[in-house]
Write a structure and sequence with these properties.
The protein is mostly beta strands. The protein is built from no helices and 24 strands. Strand 8 and strand 9 form a beta hairpin.
């Protein structure tokens, strides 16, 4: 059964991250430029001066955060920031969107046009202090996640309604061309953020469909978790045994009280620990 984890209405909730050392959930409200969390019943918020959208954990105190113009280290205890590199800083059209750490300690981050300008975005990988462009001509970057064995990465351009997969080499770099994993166009479903569980199945939040859908390793639909919020944006596994599925939603353009809240469901399936970003 799905319940409300946090009742704050995010205009564009995104990027949920369960910090394995802190046993704490973090997520973003992109359009309000906020990082959100909770400590028990106490809601927490950090305000930034530009869009922030995704993070990876570096150690107990520090997150690596992707913003509109850069990747930076953020200290949760002190509030101090340290820039790591530019992220399309010379392009005022774009901002960061979906991102996740990979099994090799790298961090994949997608960009998109602030107004979803066609083909304005790209997907990058940050590793060992360097940012490398992997794929271009992306309109809405989403669904970045990784197989447990580290041999496959997934991503989507939401506009195409296709989740793609690409093989990875031993260092975590793409090898060969991406290919279709799940084509949702026939069902008119829009793939948003995604995460892979410990069995290798992919869980995809589907914008406008009030659900997070689970797909087997061969791309076959397995089942789905229903959400009260219509615009599901991204799932994440968390909790002490990693069987709680959290999901952010977006209230943007909608008026119901259930929109924009962050939800959690006990799914009886174990997730992966979020990988640590190695600097």
């Amino acid at each position: 059964m799905t319940r409300v984890f946090d009742d704050r209405r995010c205009t564009l909730g995104e990027g949920p991250l369960w910090h394995p050392e802190r046993q704490q959930m973090f997520w973003f409200d992109i359009l309000n430029r906020q990082l959100l969390s909770r400590e028990g019943d106490t809601p927490l918020v950090w305000q930034f001066d530009e869009y922030v959208s995704a993070a990876g954990w570096v150690n107990r105190s520090e997150l690596m955060i992707a913003s509109q113009s850069k990747l930076f280290l953020f200290n949760l205890d002190t509030g101090a920031s340290e820039k790591l590199c530019d992220l399309e800083a010379d392009n005022p059209v774009t901002r960061s969107n979906d991102g996740r750490a990979d099994p090799k300690g790298g961090f994949w981050i997608g960009t998109m046009g602030i107004n979803a300008e066609k083909g304005a975005g790209a997907i990058y990988r940050f590793q060992h202090g360097q940012l490398h462009k992997l794929f271009g001509d992306i309109t809405i970057s989403n669904a970045i996640c990784f197989a447990p064995d580290g041999k496959t990465a997934y991503f989507a351009d939401t506009e195409t309604q296709v989740i793609q997969k690409v093989a990875l080499d031993d260092a975590g770099w793409p090898t060969g061309s991406p290919e279709s994993f799940v084509d949702l166009s026939a069902e008119d479903l829009n793939p948003d953020g995604a995460v892979v569980d410990a069995d290798g199945c992919l869980w995809n939040a589907q914008w406008g469909a009030s659900r997070v859908a689970r797909y087997a390793l061969d791309g076959r639909f397995v089942d789905a978790v229903s959400l009260p919020g219509k615009q599901a944006t991204c799932p994440a596994f968390g909790g002490s045994d990693l069987t709680s599925l959290f999901s952010t939603t977006a209230a943007d353009g909608l008026s119901g009280d259930e929109e924009g809240r962050t939800y959690v469901a006990e799914v009886g399936v174990k997730g992966q620990n979020e990988h640590r970003v190695v600097l």
